[in-house]
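Q: What structure does this chain adopt?
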Amino acid sequence: MLEVVTLSIALAMDATAVAAARGLAAGHVPARDAVLLPSLFGGFQAGMAALGWLAGRWIGPQIERWDHWVAFALLSLLGVKMIVEAIRGGDEETKKDDLVTLLGLAVATSIDAAAAGITLPMLAAPPAIALLMIGAVTALLSAIGLYVGKIAGQRFGSRLEVLGGVALIAIGIKIVVDHVS
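A:
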């Protein structure tokens, strides 16, 4: 079971960092987003791991070949978008695509879980338990990250949205560097 907990925490780290960056950018997080973001992040993390588990060996190498580039592209685009909104002084109209943004972040942070899902049959716990643990840990840590980011955003002001955008780009770069090296 320790292996499942360790895997769950490791997979949740990108989602937690992105949730914190999102909290920084938002400053004020609506109750809907405080529930929606962790739910999407946890759901996508578990869902992608389930896809990896079901797809097995065939899709694993395909996912591993491209996952880091897709995550990098999505996180970079969203990071640049956050920076531009911060510089322009984003208003409520720029927040209309919030659900699309959250879905993009959920996908970007969960792609590596598909490759990790291939390893589920090798763990001591049943895959269904592992999938539940992956989703629950990601949701919990994402909620904590969002809250901590929100507090920092409220304390230090909305210009931290630029920092949040830079953080998303940095996470994307780190994902690529980790996979390439």
